[in-house]
# Entry
Amino acid sequence: MNSKNLLATFLLLLFMVGFISCDNDEVEINQLTGKWTVWNDDPNLSVDSSVDYTFNTNGTCIIHTTSFLNPSSRTFNLKYAVSTNNNTLTIYKNDMHIMENEVGAGKYRIIKLTSSEMILDSMDNRNKTLKLRRK
# Structure
């Protein structure tokens, strides 16, 4: 009887370890650096501009916006920080603790980050969920 309890406890622990380790499988934080483009998978929404995010290894982020309707583009030089548990991305201008009113600045929960796709869910009221693809 004692060995059955021990086996059941061991199997329960093994199951819990397996479940916990699967919690963040879709976040490969080393894939963050590089150029990403915001994409839309809604076929009913027309696209009249593009937004590119470039994350550099030195903690800087360049956001480049282009309008297809008029020949204008803008570039924003920002910084970024990733939380120690790799599930939060903060994009900011000068101080990450003060949310400046800057295009792209904000705090995002990293939902998915692979070599080809990134999904960021806004944690403040300033932005929305972003879906990005590797450029």
In short: Residues 26-134 form a domain with the Lipocalin fold (CATH 2.40.128.370). Strands lie at 34-38, 49-55, 60-67, 73-82, 88-92, 106-113, 117-122, 130-134.
